[in-house]
Fold each of these.
Amino acid sequence: MILSSMRLLWVEVFPDQQQVTIKKGYLDLREWDAEEGGILLLDGEWEFYPMQWLLDGSGQDTSGGPKPPKLIAVPGGWNQALHGNGKASPYGFASYRLRILVNPEEKLNYSIRVPSVRSSSELYVNGRLLAESGRVADTKEAYTAKNLPYSASFTADGNGVIELVIQAANYVDSRSSGIARSIKLGSEEAVAKEMKLSVSMQTLGAVIFLMHSVYALILFLLGNREKRLLYFSLLTLCVTLSSILSTDEKLFHQFIYISSDWDFRLSNAAFMIGCYALLECTNHRELSYWNRVHPVYAVTILGTAGITLFLAPPQVIMLFPVYFLLGCVTAVITIIAITKTIMKGIKDHLLLLFSMVALVHHFLWALFLRESALSVAHYPFDLILSMGCLAAVWFKGYFKMHANTKEIAATLQRVNDHKDQFLANTSHEFKNPLHSMLNMSQSVLNRERPLLQDRSVKELETILTVGRRLTLILNDLIDVMSLRDGNPRLQKKAVSIQPIVTGVMDMLQFNAEVKSVSIVNQIPEDFPPVLADENRMIQVVFNLLHNAVKYTNEGYISIQAFTEDDRAYIAIADTGIGMDETMLKRLFLPYEQASASETMIEGGFGLGLSISKQLIELHRGTLEVASVPGEGSRFTFSLKLAGFETEEVQRDSNSNGPPTLPSMPMQDTIGAGLQKEEIFPPAAIQGALPERRSNRPTLLIIDDDPVNLQVLEAILPPDEYEVTMATSGKEALAVLDAKEWDLVISDIMMPQMSGYELTRRIRERFTLTELPVLLLTARSQPKDIQSGFLAGANDYVTKPVEAMEIRSRIEALTTIKQTVREQLRLEAAWLQAQIQPHFLFNALNAVTALSDVDLDKMRNLLEEFSNFLRYKFRFQDTAGLVPIKEELSLVRSYLYIEQVRFEERLQVVWEVDDCGALQIPFLSIQPLVENAIRHGVMKRTYGGTIHIRISVHAAHAEITVQDDGIGMEEAQLQRILERTANHQSGVGLINTDQRLKRHFGTGLHIQSRLGEGTRVTFHARI
């Protein structure tokens, strides 16, 4: 009933196609006027010959005699009627026959259109084979599956009879087989017209969808990688594939036939992927409950698509319910997501509403065609409309975003202008108090220099140097606005470059010396003058030289000049870190700097090079740069040479002395006219100095900025701390073994080796308590602080440092180190004073035994025992170094006593080079020898041998104590130098190891094998 209603609806929608009634395999069309252009659907009762061929390839009757035919509904499946034994099966072969009577007086060319016969067929008209799809056969081996639409043209015989015979076979498709869709009959012109229309519509739809796919993919690749564009591209590509592979005219197969197997696989896999892409084009993730199901859905649908590509057609058909279920889920979730979006505002989402309605219409129409088995011209407009509206939604969003971006850009431009104005105003406000501070500092320095300590003079000069640098930085900030508003006024005159470079070098010389960088001025004194603004040239040279010093850690910076044509070229070259191509492209942009995470260098506004380039261009010159990463950079700027008419002016101005740097208070000028103060003799000043403590903590401070080093040096008075400074991690590691340090203070952002890396290198040799590390960082983010602690730091201080805070932290960390040092001293004193009772008793028993046997040997034993006790009770040597001869004397006394006791069981081999003035910690060899005897050779019944070997090399001596005792297992060897709360082996080896590390940087190196013996080695610097 429902199917009949759908067919009636279809007839009303498509009046050109007419449905006729076929009874018992006959159709009378003698009253039908085919010239009107109508097309008939040959639906009804056809004669059906199961498992029988009516005709062979030549048109001969092969039925073997008349057999009563069955009647079967066309279109429809033959599953129930094929075998006739009550068993439904789609596999087999059969013949269909229909006799059509037409008006014999009409001499027309008729055409028949066969859209789908599963899954191979032949078409005979009046005994002639006119068309086929695949190869029909009565065996699966001889059969070839191919289900493509085809057409054939013909004429009726002289009696107006058209006998249609369709022979079909199927051995692979498990669905309902036979004639699956309505067969069309009409005049040749009418059928050709409809077929052309259908092909055109399908081609149009495929082209439009493919265009959507391509431009969406291009926008995704060239744009901001919005994933929805990628999914939309994938969706339209899947729609295109599904359309041209398996629907209506099957356009793809008309050009390239890929077999029915791959037809099944690709079309169904594309359907699954298209469903997933459709869902991803919506806001489905906003559905609360769906979020929990979506991961399972995604894995299921994509997994099903992947599996489909490896299945045979019968297996793919078995998955049809799964495809249908997943497709329904996609449709429902898509509709819900779109509806939820539309409900936020229908007016703003009309296009989305149209897209949803068109999409729903397409699915309903596809379902209707599938269930009714009708064959109509391809109808792509609803899907085209849906995809077009969906694309329009995104275009609308992009246009809106573009408008918002323009508005935001305008706002940012206004804010940028306000920012530059704010910086300029702030710089003006800072300049007056800064100049006052500099002038007053200069006055105090000029007036009080004879009365001040050298340290105070140095700190005041550092303040003045920093202030002058700050003045030039403020000038850069002020110039930002003046250069943007228009060309600033330049007071050009004949200027000599050589004295300008010399003055700027004096300002930066301290920075360069601290970093081991030499600045070489190779400009000759007679270099011709240039036409330029003197103050601006000082600004340019300062910026270029300061940049070179900042990014050069070692090597040199050279300033050269040469002339060419009527121009002067000044080149500043360095051996610094260099720049890559990316950095060179944005080097002269304002507020641009090299990445601090890459260079490990912070500071500055990134304005110097930008302003320098603009100032040089205002002088009608050029500023160019060449650089190689890791090798250095070379900046070259050009200026016009001064003409002859300006040389007299230049000579007159030079006669009064070299030009004065702006914002640099000169001592003679500021101090002129000041009243002279009484000068105290140096002895009186020195007498007022406080005495320095002898036990001052030794600090190693590392920072690549010399100003920061000066600040820390000022905060930490020399009478309280012994400070050593370094400008790089490499330099710090070089001096780490020079002495024992109480604390390392390191900046994090340093070139070549960061503070993190330096801390990790220190922790490879020293524990947290053996050498504390305090990190200075301008970054206070938790991840930066965490990185410091993970590297092995004890504490951190954020910059700029507060004097009270850093001194408190330094005191706390140095107290830890001094406490550990005191613990080692007490342990060493305890080891020195400790005499094992059994050793004492054994020694006295030996003396008693020798008194009755050998008095001379007894006297020698008493002498060695006395010598051993005398060295044991020298407590003043516990913290320092002693000559190795004293340590060896103690060892010999101890060994003599033990050899008298154990006799032949203890053998000692000495291999000692000339040690000269070598010094080692007291009680560093004797505990090793005692440990080798007690826990090594004497554990054996027959004893063993002790080897004591001292090898002297150019810079160090190697001391080794080796025994052939019982040795140790690997697990015991790993724990032997660990200090734990429940450690059972005493403190002898641990204390010796830590004291050696304290003095020489390295401790004990122990090698042992169970049953073979132990070897203990340490190195001492000569």
Amino acid sequence: MGLEFKLEVMNDCTALGLLEGDEVLVSTIEQPRSNGKGLAVFEAAGEHFISAFTRFGNRIMLLGERIHVVREHQVRIIGKVIGFSFVAKEKAAAFADATAH
């Protein structure tokens, strides 16, 4: 994996304003802050997911659509989300414009 990569959103994440098909740009060298404001990409059980988070000792509280508390060893922080590409929203807007006439 390079210093930055794009990750396609596979499921709607309405709490973050992301829809399936949108893309996020992830930096593997920038570390996300655990203050609940920035977004991080995590890996657990071979799956990647995006969430804001905070830490409590050896626990990580994932602040997504629902709050999940996991032990630090259950997830791996891949990197920090540094940009967005709202592909799904752009496609939806283009479709709406095309069908409005």
Amino acid sequence: MKNRVVGAILIGMLIMSACSFSNSKEAEQNSVAVSSEESSEALTTDDKNLIELDTSKIIEDQSFDIQLNEWGNVRFVSCRPDKDKCPNADASFYLMNHEQVIYKMPSVYENDIRDWGLFEDISFVAFKDINEDKKDEVIVGVQYITGAGAQGMIPRTEVRIFEDKGGSFEYSKDISEYITDLIPEDGTINDVYDKIKLYYSTFGKSTSLYDDSIDSQIQVIVKNRDVWKITYEDPSGPVTSPFSCYYITDYDHNGRLEITASECQGTGIYTSTSIYEVNSDFNGIELIDDNGDAPEVEYKKIKVFYNEANQTYMYIGTNHGKSGALWGGNIKCALCLENGVIHYDKIAAEEYQPKGEDSDELVFSYTDNTGATITKEQFETAEDELYKSYDQQEVSFGAIYNERDNVFQELSDDIMAQMLMKSYETFSGQISYDEFNEIEEKIRTS
């Protein structure tokens, strides 16, 4: 993965621009003093046992001039390890005042030697108050490779969060490992912010990343059940649909949850879908406009293509349709929430019909999103080709079915909120689809 400086994303997140650091001195002069102590203490002029920091190891585009809490105007410096001395050497991070090192971030591994995995690169650095202590934390993404197995050379992201304790920083082990376990192998700072939000909402802690926690948004959705639940008019009054299902998402990762209300029935296998998003005031929900017929999705495993440049997520589904027992087709579509509108973009189509008037044998034809003829093989991989410049992930939707004997829409607020929270945790990757089904059943019957 190329080094990159992450721009401002998610609620005005501040990520500082890189500034160059002079390496014009001769190699033997490329060093600055830093305390040999691994404790979290700033240097003074009386520090002894100084070691040298080789400035040739500084990663320029991941080093920043910043105003950092009570440290003042400092330079945050990311340094690659000296693998010639030890193949398992780890990255290190420093604060500098002019050319003087004033602080070294705590080592995650003893003596900065990794227990496993080989350092590859630094993918992002950010500074943000994530725990409402009025001090910016330092968030870094360290890429490493395992070198083992067929996937061993694919870089993976390890997240490190350093909390400012006033005069020192502390490595926040629990949240760092929690986020590392959940984000994709090529996780971005955007993924990190999503998981920080999830971490604090799950463990009952507050965060300033969003105006409202996940829990409070779930409560807003529950209180607006009469807006999103699917009903039919009956002589005795509105009747809830027994063929519907509901699930929680954050399609565009903007921090505001959506609830999808979906119904699939009829001989034409027609899916009717309405998607509601928590509003910007976090006190209600609003129907999202769309441009057509929603595709059916495989709830357990959904392909998602992600374009980092424009923050676009494409969720792949298929529109099934029948015009008779032997006539019909499948249209691959991408669901995308962008600028407040849901788009269902055609990827490719498969059509079938009888070979002859009295024949049960079917003839298949395939076209791409422009209408050009393609092969069956090209149809099967059309989304991979169309979005080949995108990153690819997989997600699951925690679909809650409206069972006849235990109607979901009429459950108590508390039970409904628990089920919707588990649906969100499925979408965000905290629990698997199979785990969701087991937990959802226990909640229903408790």
